Amino acid sequence: MRDLLNDAGARVLEWSAIEARGVESESFLQGQLSQDLASLGEQGAWALLLAPDSVIITTCFVIRHDDGFDLVVPRELAAEATARLQRFLLRTKCTLTIVEVGEGPFTTLDEQIDAAWPGPSEFAASLTPHSFGRSFILATISFQKGCFTGQELVARLDARGSSVPWRFVRVSGPSRERVDEVLRSKGPAGPQGVTSERWRHARLEGLGIAHRTLLSASNGVDHGDVTIEEVA
After folding, report:
1. What integer is the mean pLDDT of 209-217?
2. Which of 6, 82, 184, 225 is the most buried (most CB within 10 A)?
3. How far is CA 104 from CA 90, 126, 200, in A?
4. Which among 141, 15, 136 is positioned nearest to 71, based on CA atoms?
C-alpha cells in the first residue's frame, strides 16, 4: 500500500472504527480494554487492546454511543484488533463491525511524532505498555477498574516498579542508518531501531525503540551526531 501524502508532503494517517453494539457491549469491552468505560466521558478516552500476555495489539480511542461504543484504531490494525476481540465474544449480546472513518486522533504521522505517541510501527515490536513511558500508562490504563485481558503482567509491573528492558524514545540524526547504528549499539539483539520518521531541516526526526542500557548515564556512550531521548 502506498502512503497517502498531504499537500505539505506529510503522510496522512488512515483510521477505522470498530463499532461495538448491543446491550452487553459495555460489559464485554470492560473485560477487554484497559480503560474504565463506566466513567468514560463525552470526549472519549484512549485505551489499550492487549494480547493475553500483555503485548499491545493497538491503542484505540473509545467513544460512547447510545447503543454501544466506537473503537477508533489505525486502519491497518482494525482487522487484527477485531479478530482478537472476537476470540472472547462468546454468547454475548454484542456485535462488532469495522467501518472506515474520515478522521482519527491524529491527521498525519508528523502530528503523531510530535505527540510522541506510538502507532502500528511501534506496536510491531510486540512490547508491553510500560515500554512506552509513564505518561502513556496514565493516558490509557485504569488501575481502579476490574480485570481485563492482559492485565496481570501490567499490574504486576506497575506494583513492583519493574524496569522493562525496551524503551520508547525520540530520535534525531543525519540518517536512518546512523540512528539505527546508535540504537543497536547497546543491549541484546531485539526490536531496537527507528520505527517512525520524517525529515526536517535536513535531519531525520522520529520515534524508536532502545535498550535501557543505552539510556543509562553510567554507560558513558557518546552519541555524537545522534540525539536520543526517552519518552517519559
Report:
1. 88
2. 82
3. 29, 23, 24
4. 15
